[in-house]
Amino acid sequence: MALLLATALGLALPAATNAAPAKITERSKQKQAAEAQRADLRQKLDNLKRDISQTETQKDDASDALADSEEAVSKATRSLRDLGAEQNQTEAKLAKLAKQHDELSKTVTKQQTQLANLLRQQYVAGNEDRIKLLLSGDNPNRINRDLQYMGYVSQAQAKLLESLRANLAAVEANQTEAQNAKDDLDEIAQEQRDQKKLLDQEKAKRAALLSQLSSKLSSQRKEVGNIERDDQRLSGLVDKLAQLIEAQKQAEAAAREKLRQQQLAQAKAKAEAQAQAARERQRLLEQQRAARANKPPAGDTTVKPKPVNPDAIDDDQPPAVAVTPPAPATPVARNELTPEADVKDVSYGKPFESLRGQLRLPVRGDVMARFGSKRGDGPSWKGLFIRTPEGAEVKAVAAGRVVFADWLRGFGNLIIVDHGNQYMTIYGNNQALLKRPGDTVKAGDVIANAGNSGGNEQSGLYFEIRHQGRAFDPLGWVTTR
Length: 481
What we know:
- By secondary structure, this protein is α+β, with helices and mostly antiparallel strands.
- Among the domains are: about 60-220, Helix Hairpins (Orthogonal Bundle); about 315-480, Distorted Sandwich (Glucose Permease (Domain IIA)), CATH 2.70.70.
- It is about 55% helix and about 15% strand.
- It contains six helices and 13 strands.
- The strands form two sheets. Strands 1, 3, 4, 5, 6, 7, 8, 9, 10, 11 and 12 form an eleven-stranded antiparallel β-sheet that branches. Strands 2-13 form a two-stranded parallel sheet.
- About 30% of the residues are buried.
- It comes from Collimonas arenae.
């Protein structure tokens, strides 16, 4: 009784005297693993950009001086957004853990009370043990009944103690996980401060560069040769991305065929094993018949087939891109509707070509330049330029996968979404790219913030739709009303 009471009192200590909280989290390791997964895709995109830049004859474009700071602004903005989302998730997790802790604490308190009452009743009853009962000389039936009763009581005590131990361990694990979540929040908060400081520095650096390069940028924007080279650069990038996507599809098809062949081989091996087993059964039957007829049995040649396990096939992901041009002073139209992320995605799972007339423009603003209109003495526009405030949310017009998200001369921070069947949408002049190559998006997902990167005069978004590398009028597919 004394030992049991001491055990119960030891278990009844509140919250199991709080074990030292773990200070090491897995967050940094997870981030490193995610970066490692993107490394191969990033290398492919770097190779594409390098191939395009090797064909350049003009190396002193003023917008190139802005490249590093505009890329840094984009990365810092995306990091801040990612950290904000991660912070919300961690805070929700912490709130859930706190609720679980309260529920566990109530359960532990209730079980401690039950155990104390059980021990008190046992003590008041005289704490008769089995040996005393057996030596009492009482009626055997009564002794047997009392022994069974005591066994039930002991089992109830044991179960209660075990449950209490489990709940106390759960409380301790909950406290450790909560502490880890708090450590994550502290780490996120520090990263947010660092990224905010970096963002402010890079914005100031870019503003200073723009002030220094304003006259040179203005003159270069008007040069017909520059505009044509920008168009060729984007077209070359889209063509190379299409080739990369096609190569990826072929690799995936080859992987599926390899898996199919492995499955066929496995099925064949299984069938052969079953046939061999049937033959073995028949042979054993014949041996038994032969033994009954006083004939020597045949030799045993059991063959055990080896199972064939198919190799795991890894899916690779494709990349993404972005574009930027200038605009006239008077808007030719006004867009007030953008894709909605809070309703069912009408584009999900549908061929892009079936969405004609159902799409919305990716950002609200004034349509300053339309597809096919002349750009001064230069070539015609191959997309739309929508004037909108810096930082405005740019949304994907349909479901797809980001295949390029980087800075490109002439278009600044550019993002390209592949929608399948060689349809792509292109979003340029962005202040920040919020998605990475390989990310899947739905219609209405925010993928960028509008801006004037790439040396553009006005803040806004350059938007194109292409099929098989050829640009066509987006207004034939979307509505501005």
